[in-house]
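Ribonuclease P protein component
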Amino acid sequence: MQELFRNARKVGTFPLRLLSRKNETGKSYFLFCPDKSHKRAVDRNRTKRLLKELVRTHLSQFPAGMDFAILAHIDFSKKSPEERETIFQSFFQKPQ
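Structure:
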């Protein structure tokens, strides 16, 4: 896990950031990380639930054989479902 944070490719901006790195297993693994702005466990769990659902619905867009860490600020969970979807979709858009 430390290797993921040290040598990862970083994508995204506030309030959501995606870190990715190749692994040797051929399977994708996900880590959901609410940051320190989440003061209560209820807020951290809600953010993780929202992220897991977004990953589940967009799983086909993630390449196989990668480790992913998704870092989220508390503001992410306070946004509307449409805004969360737009922010998450920005991970898959090509940089210009």
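The chain has a mean pLDDT of 92.
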